[in-house]
Predict the 3D structure of the following.
Amino acid sequence: MFHFRDREGQPTRFYVVAARAMSIAEHFRVDGDINALKRRLRKETRVELHDTFQPYRAAFSRLFGIESEQALDLFHQTVSMKSVGDLTQFVRTHMLEAFDIESRIEQMLTHFDDLERAHAVVVKAKAQIGLLTPLVEDCDRHVQLAEGAAELRANRDALHGFFDGLKAGLLEKRAASLEEDATRLAARLETAEGRVLSARGQRDGLKQAIAENGGDHIEALAREIATRSIERDRRRRQAEDYDRLALALELPGPLDADQFADNFNALARICEEEAARRAELDNARTDAQVAFRQVRDEHAKLEVEIKSLEGR
């Protein structure tokens, strides 16, 4: 429907699609106002009113079952066609739908790349499954062995209670036997204590008789002998220690005081030599510790580098 808003310029249009018969005189009569006509048409049943072409074409195609825009363009060209210059060009332009071969090729290439990547993923997954299957079997075997070990460990723990029961029975028998022994020993102890008391009485009588007959001097001599024996044993041990140390230092035994003095002077020189040697060993140990720390640091660096290479 064409109409003029202004007396000059191009006409304005709107589009109507009706699913029933309509006439110009009856339904498209304009009584001075085009908007009143639009309102009247919108009230009609089975009538669609559109201000633009795209909704109109969509409604037209829906009613006629036209799924292709190319067919609708062909219908439009056929209705408005006055002459055909080049039939081949007309068929190519209006009867054959455009086919974007480049985009289809690009889609095929993209799809092929996706398939190739999917195939690589499948191959990698199969390889991983092949590598992981033995590991899973080993894990199952480990679980079975762990369960068997747990069962054996439980049985072993149960044996402790069994043997403890046996041990408790044996200990009860042993305790009863010990009680009988204790009873017998108590009786023997009472007898022995009576003998001890009797012997002590005899000892005290003998001590008193010895004291009355000069026994105090004998006791003093006995104490002195005991003291001298202790001192003798102490000096003997010191002499043995000296001989052992002198032998270790390759020094002769002190047969007299002069030899003892010579050994003492030689011992001073040995101490000086050992002090010097100890200083050299300390220096060597310090150098060795420094070298060890350097080697340890180098070893730590190599371990870090090896772990990095293994990760890569």
Remarks:
- The longest strand covers residues 15-18.
- The beta strands are 2-3, 12-13, 15-18, 47-50.
- The two ends are 75 Å apart (CA to CA).
